[in-house]
Amino acid sequence: MTTPDTLNTIEQKVLAGERISFDEGLYLDEHADVLALGRMANVVRERKNGNFAYYNTNIHLNPTNVCVYRCKFCAFRSDLKDEKAYVFSDDMARERILEARSQGATEIHVVGGLHHQKKFDWYVNLIRVLHETCPEIHIKAWTAVEINWFSFITKQSTEWVLQQMVDAGLGSLPGGGAEIFHPDVRDQICEHKADGTNWITCHRTAHQLGLRSNATMLYGHVEQAHHRIDHLCKLRDLQDETGGFQTFIPLAFHPENTGLDHIIKPTGTMDLRMIALSRIMLDNFDHIKAYWIMLGEQIAQVALGFGADDLDGTVVHEIIYHDAGAKTPEGLTVSKLNQLITEAGRIPVERDTLYRRVHRDGAQWSVGDSVMAG
Ligand code: V47
Ligand code: SF4
């Protein structure tokens, strides 16, 4: 049913802080205009995070691009014998985290391919090398798909795998690998890797072990509105159960050099709709991230008025989206992030991975209390 009354009823619920249902979410996705979505999302955003907008100082490390899987949306992966195949050595990993330290990074974000020949020890050792070199830097590493692969190759439980990683220095899990949970879509774009249930189970286990994690949704490919809403409802259910998610990141599909290169990249309006819709649906998530690398600086900045409260970080050495055609720079300076946020009328706050305020005194930094969240 498409009527202004329906939109009005949903808007009243959102303004009253009430949860909206699957059907209401679907209605918004299919019928609401972007400004109506933004208006509602901004209320939720300001209720949870006031006028603050967060960023962090981080660096990425993708330890190998060799991958046993062939996700159709991925331009990053490589076969074992491809010219572009690479694998990080311990020395390269040390060099990367020392570079992170020299730039004042509080976080290193580590995800990569599932290498045909690397044993579990290689992945654990990488985390240990990073942690022993710079113990002050938070290691956010391995998607649920990678954790699932480690369980497969070791024949051990998810809990065991995560515990080995925590013992080596892992601090939290990023949100990647979620794509779209619904099997009708997953079977078309990444049929062999961990399915939606595995992804959810992995994050549940991580939360039960006391780890925090993020969640993502890859949109703008073959999925439809009901798949997106299903995805958001599954994340909302798990968050009700564990409270372990920190932030949700809608990821815009970049088609270049992928098996889906006939699809046109989502437009700015679609990007803003997804930010707003997720802010409205995920009433139990504290943060929604507008990942500027993916969205571009301009849309990410505007997204701060459409539900987003976080721009991610300085992100030096990004490969995954640049292989898929992203035209954004590989990194932004802190002063540029501050400028984007301030011009959007928000107050910039540097946070660490766990959303604690970062205080800087020259080259030294320390973390304070948790920044407000609703
Ligand atoms: O799982 C891969 C996506 C994800 C493409 O947790 C693509 O803070 C668009 O999850 N077009 C990995 N997306 C990155 C990720 C992430 C990024 C930033 C912050 C955080 C966080 C997590 O990237 C993959 C997949 O969904 N991806 N290829 C592509 N062509
Ligand atoms: Fe491999 Fe990840 Fe690319 Fe899929 S998205 S092919 S799992 S590197």
Distance between the termini: 33 Å
Q: Kindly give the count of domains.
A: 1
Strand pairing plus helix content: what structural class? alpha/beta
Q: Give the overall shape.
A: globular
What is the H/E order?
HHHEEHEHEHHEHHEHEHEHHEHHEEE
Instruction: Bin the strand percentage.
Output: 15-25%
Helix content: 40-55%
What is the CATH homology-level superfamily?
Aldolase class I
Unreliable residue stretches: none
Read across the widest sheet, the strand sequence of neighbours is 5-6-7-8
Hetero groups in this structure are: ligand V47, iron/sulfur cluster
- Name of the CATH class: Alpha Beta
Task: Look up the CATH topology.
Answer: TIM Barrel
Number of strands: 12
Overall mean pLDDT: 94
* CATH architectural group: Alpha-Beta Barrel
How many helical stretches? 15
Largest sheet, strands/sense/barrel:
4 strands, parallel
Q: Could you tell me the radius of gyration in angstroms?
A: 20 Å
Walk me through the structure.
By secondary structure, this protein is of the alpha/beta class. It has one domain: Aldolase class I (TIM Barrel, Alpha-Beta Barrel), CATH 3.20.20.70. Helix content is 44%, strand content 16%. The chain has helices at residues 4-15, 22-31, 34-49, 90-102, 120-133, 144-154, 158-168, 183-189, 196-208, 225-242, 268-281, 292-295, 297-303, 320-323, 334-343, and strands at 52-56, 58-61, 107-110, 138-141, 172-173, 212-219, 245-252, 287-288, 310-313, 347-350, 356-361, 364-370. A 4-stranded parallel β-sheet has the order 5-6-7-8. Strand 2 (58-61), helix 4 and strand 3 (107-110) form a beta-alpha-beta unit. The chain is globular. The two termini are 33 Å apart. The chain binds ligand V47 and iron/sulfur cluster.
